[in-house]
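Weekly structure sync, notes
Attendees: PL (lead), two postdocs, one rotation student
Agenda item 3: pending single-chain targets
PL asked that the sequence for the first pending target be pasted directly into the notes so everyone works from the same version. It is reproduced below exactly as submitted, 285 residues in total.
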Amino acid sequence: MDETPSSESISTKLERIAQLARQAPTLAFTTLAHHIDVEILRLIGKWLNAGVMEAGALHRSESGTPQGGVMLANILLHEVLDVWFHQEVLPRLGGRALLVRYADDAVMLFEREEDARRVMDVLPKRFSKYGLTLHPDKTRLVPFKRPDRAPQRRDDDDGNGPGSFDFLGFTIHWGKSLAGKWVVKERTAKDRFRRALVSVSEWCKRNMHAPLGQQQQALNAKLRGHYGYYGRVGNRAQLWTFLRRVVREWKRRLGRRSQRPLYWKRMYQILERFPLLTPAQARPA
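Predicted structure, written out during the meeting:
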């Protein structure tokens, strides 16, 4: 009689993988494959060979976890970083500290600078123990004291120097609230803003001959997704700037559909008939 297929959920299977990783954290995934169901192993193989899309081109990687690597990163870094930080690091610190991690991106916040420097010194050793390395450009100490309690910053600081850092597509920085108080704010990171705009521009180029109604629907879907992710308190100006840049790119591509130039007067008429979604209409959080 044939065996009944396992009804075990994906989350349960992933938990079993995590348990195996805790028992033998230095084992490669190929060694763990003996204990992993076929469908999970197949997904891992696909993820590891997926490659990364950059500027419309597919780039293959011989190491690391490319697209879809969130699950794999969580399995490994839960033990390598999360458990280690809470069980080994926190008890040895002189002040408060917090770890925030998503997949392979993490931020550690320390109350005392000496604690931050101590952890910064041992962090590369901890990662190398598991065959991992830290990104040399993204791994750094950032003074993040409230501006009225920190040394005076330069007048020409563009906001991306000391006192701010990028995390998950946002630049985290200090700013004034409407009440005039210092608060931590988020704005769209410059590289993510450029990447999103390039993606829209390339789409408009590929589809400039499609009916305007179809273009409008697709652009509004892209705008809705952008607003949904980047729609944070204090970031509304960046959303409006993105919309204006999208309109400019759309006009530029539509102007190449024929030899006749497309002036702004005609573009405004197009926008009246095929309006694009605004941040106010999307109601970001």
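Discussion points:
- The radius of gyration is 24 Å.
- The chain has ten helices and seven strands.
Action: rotation student to compare against the earlier draft before next sync.
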